[in-house]
Design a protein that fits this description.
four-stranded antiparallel β-sheet, 2 helices, 2 domains, single chain, 24 strands, Neuraminidase, 379 residues
Length: 379
């Protein structure tokens, strides 16, 4: 026997000796498993014989409008008399009701036609524009050609006139973050319109609650910065920021003149972190995230538009954010681009701002849409 054969025999012998016991154990284990399986099939265990596994109940898809609530404040004019007044839309019930009963028991002195309102930061007062009207409810005609600025206290149910000037057609009051001042639009002459006239023909005024007002610049739709040290507003060619310290206007976003003049509206969230521009000329609304106020920077989040195969588009107006910034409310109408027919289906729609799903929460079919303004949303 040569050396190689002895090596092979030695390895074989060692292998046999080393693995003889494991092989026997493995054989025995197989027999045991086979017997166990036979027992399992014979006894047919029930589900109770298996160990309990905790059941994970995955939550259902959250309704994006589950937290939709509050009241949306508007200026509306019923079709039967065209007298503008202050209304409130209850988001839960979808009911639209007058904010005040000017012909009821509350004493408002001379009766008023109300236009555009806004609550103070604390919610105990709100500012609104109004004009005296003829006491005959059948006439509903303003006395004079101007709208004054008033503040109504929701606790005492009393009102007071704030503005002392003879500015015509004051509109769109916005409270400062501390609630000590109000910015608004005003014209020195004539009633005018935001859509038909030069936006720079409107002055931007700031007043305290004693009526000490001052003109700061020209433009439309002014909104305060969170710190109260600046205003953002629209002019003919775009979006501007006015700084109270430097007394300078800085252009921060460009729009063509046609875009601005055809009913472009500006809305800013209560905390100054979101901005929306609704533009019927392009049938869309752009939602921006405000990154910084000084220097001013913003970033486009989403451009919303609705177009149907039959050639209709949706025009959006008067963007208003919910207090928690979860939703954006807009007035909307449908328009046939080809025929340029009069807009139809006026309504209030809400977009949820995480996935931008839409929901209709109120119809404006009984009101004159040309005299409709959405100005505030409160919880």
């Amino acid at each position: 026997m040569d050396f190689g054969q002895r090596i092979n025999d030695g390895i074989t012998g060692k292998f046999s000796a080393r693995f003889k016991k494991p092989v026997l154990l493995l054989t025995g284990l197989v027999v045991v498993i086979a017997i166990s399986l036979l027992v399992v099939f014979i006894t047919k265990p029930s589900l109770e014989d298996f160990p309990k596994i905790p059941f994970v109940n995955l939550p259902a898809q959250e309704d994006p409008f589950e937290n939709l609530k509050g009241k949306i404040y508007m200026t509306l004019a019923p079709k039967d008399d065209n007298a503008t007044n202050l209304y409130v839309l209850n988001v839960d019930s979808k009911r639209i009701e007058p904010l005040f009963d000017f012909y009821g028991e509350e004493d408002f002195g001379d009766l008023f036609v109300g236009v555009t309102s806004k609550f103070s930061p604390l919610g105990d007062e709100f500012a609104y524009m109004a004009a005296p009207i003829d006491r005959d409810p059948k006439k509903i005609s303003p006395i004079g050609t101007f709208l004054g600025l008033f503040v109504f206290n929701t606790e005492t149910r009393t009102w007071q006139g704030v503005s002392k000037s003879s500015l015509h057609n004051k509109r769109l009051p916005q409270w400062s973050p501390k609630g000590t001042e109000i910015v608004f639009n005003g014209r020195e002459q004539g009633i005018g319109s935001f859509s038909a006239d030069n936006l720079e023909g409107w002055g931007i005024y700031v007043t305290d609650l004693n009526g000490n007002e001052r003109r700061v610049t020209s433009g439309a739709y002014p909104h305060w910065s969170p710190a109260g040290d600046a205003l953002i507003f629209l002019r003919d060619d775009g979006l501007y920021v006015y700084n109270f310290l430097s007394k300078r206007n800085i252009k921060v976003y460009s729009l063509s003149e046609e875009h601005v003049k055809i009913n472009t509206k500006l809305g800013v969230s209560g905390d100054g972190s979101l901005l929306a521009l609704s533009n019927p000329n392009t049938a869309d609304v752009s939602v921006f995230k405000i990154i910084s106020w000084n220097p001013f920077q913003m970033q486009l989040i989403k451009r919303l538009s609705e177009r149907t195969p039959d050639g209709s588009v949706t025009d959006f107006y008067w963007p208003v954010f919910s207090p928690d910034n979860r939703y954006l409310a807009l007035q909307a109408t449908e328009r046939d681009v080809a025929s340029r027919a009069f807009p139809k289906n006026p309504r209030i729609v809400v977009y949820e701002l995480s996935d931008f799903k839409q929901k209709v929460i109120g119809s404006l079919g009984g009101f004159n849409f040309d005299l409709a303004f959405t100005t505030d949303w409160r919880y």
